[in-house]
Amino acid sequence: MRFLGIDLGTGSIKLAIVDEAAREVASSSAAYAVSSAHPGWAETSADAWHAALVDAAARLPSHERDAVSAIGFSGQMHGVVPTASDGRALRPAMLWPDTRARSLLDAWPEPQPNPVAPGMAGPLLRWLAINEPEVAASMGWALQPKDWLRVRLGGAFVTDPSDACATALAAPSGEWDEALIDRAGLPREWFAPLAASHGHGGVLSAQAAAELGLRAGIPMAVGAGDTPCAALGSGLIGDGDALLTTGSGGQIVVMCKEAPASMRGLHTYRGATGTWYRMAAMQNVGVALEAVRAWLGYASWPAAYDEAFTADASASVSFLPYLSGERSPWMNPAARGGWLGLGLDDTRGSLMRAAFEGVAFALRAGLDAIRHSGTPLTAMRLAGGGSIDARWRQLLADALDVELHAVDCPNAAAHGAAMLGGVAARHWRATELAALAPSATRVASPRADAALQDRHARFIDLYGRVESWF
């Protein structure tokens, strides 16, 4: 018996098959592009997601696919897929880095129980209703990415609390806020009914089964957002357990038995199994580093890592990575980035090194906000495709002043999604998932580095000085 987890990320889809003991036995992935037709836009064709899924599924061993008994879903959060009543995407999906709706946040006056960013479904749908009324008039549903994909495979029009609570249209508990939906000028009927993340979300259609090389009729779990799925797949089970994920964006997640008090710049969201988590969410991690790598002309990531970490850290160059605005802790969608302090003696390697440090310092700003909320963190689990290189891991540990333990599971979000599929198929109970947690290996302990801390202090000072420019 096998369970398939599908993680629909910002730039790629990742699949993982786990066995009866939740051990990963096969994985694959396929990439797609994020487009920006206008400044500040971030979109992807939903049909490209499905094509990538078919491509990635074909790379899985056929004998493992034959044994799949259920499917679970994980997906990038906040964005939205405008969808017809029959499940067709009516336009490209609008994604979480999108800032086109930043002038429309007046429907969410402070204080809010959770920070509101322009790339959340609420502001994006408000923009859509104003600027693309013909699309809005044709809509039957406003779906979260993983929900659209599940519907495309034959599933039900439902969502889960972990995704709903991050739309800026629901309470932190996940229940839709009808008053808020009305204030944003949106139809209530667009929003799918709620079901548990591990609940039954339909069965795989015959057409989808043929496309994916799976058996028709197998159950599909509703699924959850990628952050709570990564937490589940990484073994976060106890109050205070913490995880750093680095992908296109970065998240620092701390599990909580009860809903933590609201705090500006931090999020209070629902987990995949009914728990809660506090989160600092930083938009500019892999997104910023990938842009810098392209600007500097590195043909590969190994070359970028080698030159960056061979170069001496500059005492004068700082890089603000805020290329798409920023969420935690600044909540400033207008923030922008760049290098400051450049000299004629700086090299491509020193600029790349400054970019890595700038991203680490941006993560530190989010972590310090969590620490200031009363949660002392000295150790965290580490997951995500953007945290493989040992030198980058050490810089993260030094800059964040934490001990990092890499989860011994390369596809944490897909792994968590597969576990949800196993519960939907009644192979496990939700209460048994804690016993399936993967091990973690210590990869880096923080080193005292006074010069690095000086550069961190300069980074924070520089952001404060230039914030008024935006």
Widest sheet: strand order?
Answer: 14-15-13-12-18-19-20
Q: Number of DSSP helices?
A: 15
Q: What shape does the CA trace take?
A: globular
Tell me the strand percentage band. 15-25%
CATH class of the largest domain: Alpha Beta
Keywords: Kinase, Transferase
Protein name: Sugar kinase
InterPro entries: ATPase_NBD (IPR043129), Carb_kinase_FGGY (IPR000577), FGGY_C (IPR018485), FGGY_Carb_Kinase (IPR050406), FGGY_N (IPR018484)
GO molecular function, one term: kinase activity
Task: Give a quick summary of the entry.
The chain has 470 residues and is an alpha+beta fold. Helix content is 33%, strand content 20%. Strands 14-15-13-12-18-19-20 form a 7-stranded mixed β-sheet.
Q: Could you explain how this protein is built, in words?
A:
It is globular and about 60 Å long. The chain is built from 15 helices and 20 strands. The mean pLDDT is 94. The protein is 33% helix and 20% strand. The chain has two domains: 2-227, 2-Layer Sandwich (Nucleotidyltransferase, domain 5); 237-408 and 439-470, Nucleotidyltransferase, domain 5 (2-Layer Sandwich). The chain is an alpha+beta fold and 470 residues long.
Write the layout of secondary structure elements.
Blueprint: E1 2-8, E2 12-18, E3 24-31, E4 43-44, H1 46-58, H2 62-66, E5 68-75, E6 81-83, E7 93-94, H3 121-131, H4 133-138, E8 141-143, H5 145-152, H6 161-164, H7 178-183, E9 200-203, H8 206-212, E10 219-221, E11 224-225, H9 226-233, E12 242-246, E13 250-256, E14 267-270, E15 276-282, H10 286-295, H11 301-310, E16 318-320, E17 338-340, H12 348-372, E18 379-383, H13 390-400, E19 403-407, H14 412-424, E20 440-444, H15 450-466
Parallel strand pairs: 1-5, 5-11, 12-18, 18-19
Antiparallel strand pairs: 1-2, 2-3, 4-7, 6-8, 9-10, 12-13, 13-15, 14-15, 16-17, 19-20
Helix pairs in contact: 9-14, 10-12, 11-12, 12-13
